[in-house]
Design a protein that fits this description.
Largest sheet: 5 strands, mixed
Oligomer: single chain
CATH class of the largest domain: Alpha Beta
Number of helices: 16
Distance between the termini: 59 Å
CATH architecture of the largest domain: Alpha-Beta Complex
CATH topology of the largest domain: Enterococcus faecalis V583 fold
Mean pLDDT: 92
Strand content: 15-25%
């Protein structure tokens, strides 16, 4: 312990140093004891040092290749369309959801609520009772957004007639998709239902979508969303739960063409007002951009870098670049954060959403040092935001070339979550996120911070070791 730390503790009249368990510190604090909490955990067991696959591939080289592909990728918004026409494999009886695969029986409240709301929005059910009966009938299919090159925030529900953004990574010939952001509060993606929810979704489909689509069609080169993310990181966003700068930059980029291609001045004005009044509008764009870049790394043999990290409110799942078709899951975690008036932790659903695609792609919670003001939304302190980013360098392969953090001397953001480093260090990815009510139909109740669960990383590490590093026994 340094002399400076001892002096600081003495000046604060600290009576107890607490190592590790927060519950012990909380009990002492309730008794009036001054406690200094130190983030510490016992040393982890020694893990196998995986350096080469059984086929002679250098795992470090494979990880460098995966990260190079992510960095070299582009993410340009080239247009829009309806989900049934744009998303590969989409059809009328298919509903996409966030996170790893999950059945109706295991779905959490907000996912169920969002599916039921989507069925009413689509005109497939007249009310919640009919929607629940149809959803549980077996006549519909539910699949992860990630299985269709798509991402969705929170419940992440995508149905056939929902408009979607089309994000192109021309460098690798891939596209990704995401719905339009409704805003915060009582919205479908948080599992809310009701006439105001459906009215907003119909306006987004009938007015917002065609207005934006016409403007994008008039832009020969689209809008470079990756470039906007890089700029937003320099303006106080981390492009997951803080998107004020990103939304402003997007509106600035598209507004002239919105005006030139407008058919009804009032509709155009309402579109501009809607985007301007929804600081989270850029979130779905940043998520689609992250997905487009990560798709380029899928299939890199011998890589232990994550290309997917997602939650459905029941399970938390990850996938590796070398095994893009296999999910490794653990129970979704409990979020600690700030709650809207009238709500508390007892109302909260476990962690949910595909928005962790941002952390996986090298921004979001991993870039919190660029966005200290995010702590006013999710909790914590500016010092914690800085510490989070510095800690995430310990579990990532490299630093992003194009996404940089001014407060760290324009150091690149942490990129390439390496399962090996997570297991060796015991450091789990930190995520900031919204919080949905655990019951269907209510919506957003807060926002907060949590760590990814350890179990899924253990399973991924074991599976990688078995599939790529161990010689199979020969039959005698």
């Amino acid at each position: 312990m340094t002399d400076k730390l001892l002096k600081d503790l003495f000046d604060q009249k600290v009576q107890v140093l607490n190592l590790g368990l927060d519950s012990m510190a909380a009990a002492l604090e309730q008794q009036g004891t001054v406690v200094e909490r130190l983030d510490w955990q016992p040393p982890r067991k020694i893990m196998p040092n995986l350096m080469w696959t059984k086929d002679g591939i250098s795992i470090d080289d494979a990880n460098r290749e995966a990260c190079k592909r992510i960095v070299d990728s582009g993410a340009v918004l080239v247009g829009m369309g309806l989900a049934r026409d744009m998303i590969p494999g989409m059809r009328a009886d298919l509903i996409l959801h966030a996170g790893p695969p999950v059945t109706w029986e295991r779905m959490c409240g907000p996912t169920r609520g969002a599916i039921m709301g989507a069925l009413i929005y689509e005109g497939l059910a007249r009310d919640e009772k009919e929607a629940e009966a149809l959803a549980s009938s077996g006549d519909l299919q539910f699949e992860p957004c990630h299985h269709h090159q798509t991402v969705g925030p929170m419940a992440g529900i995508v149905s056939a007639s929902m408009p979607v953004f089309i994000m192109e990574n021309a460098a690798f010939g891939v596209r990704s998709y995401a719905t339009l952001n409704e805003g915060l509060g009582k919205v479908l993606r948080y599992g809310a239902m009701g006439e105001e929810v459906y009215a907003r979704l119909h306006w987004m489909r009938d007015v917002l979508y065609p207005t934006l689509a016409r403007a994008l069609d008039a832009l020969p080169h689209g809008i470079d969303i990756k470039s906007l993310i890089a700029q937003a990181l320099h303006m106080g966003d981390e492009c997951h739960n803080r998107n004020r700068a990103g939304t402003s930059l997007f509106l600035r980029a598209i507004s002239p063409t919105l005006v030139r291609t407008q058919r009804a001045a009032e509709d155009t004005a309402r579109v501009i007002e809607f985007i301007n009044g929804n600081d989270h509008f850029f979130l779905n764009l940043s998520m689609a951009a992250g997905k487009a870049t990560l798709l380029a790394a899928e299939g890199v043999a011998g890589s232990t870098v994550l290309t997917t990290m997602a939650r459905n409110g029941t399970d938390f799942g990850i996938r590796l670049a070398s095994m893009p078709g296999e999910w490794f899951t653990a129970p979704a975690g409990e979020v600690k954060g700030l709650y809207l008036p009238g709500f508390s932790e007892k109302d909260a659903n476990p962690d949910i959403g595909d928005s962790t695609v941002t952390e996986t792609a090298g921004f979001g919670g991993f870039a919190m040092a660029a966005a200290p003001a995010i702590t006013q939304f999710v909790g914590g302190s500016p010092e914690m935001a800085l510490h989070t980013t510095l800690e995430m360098y310990e579990i990532t392969q490299t630093e992003h070339r194009d996404f940089t953090i001014p407060a760290l001397g324009f150091r690149g953001t942490p990129l390439g979550i390496d399962v090996r480093r997570v297991m060796e260090s015991g450091i789990l990815p930190q995520i900031n996120t919204g919080i949905a009510h655990r019951l269907p139909g209510i919506g957003m109740v807060g926002a907060g911070i949590l760590r990814a669960p350890q179990t899924c990383f253990e399973e991924a590490f074991t599976a990688f070791q078995k599939n790529f590093c161990e010689e199979k026994e020969k039959n005698t």
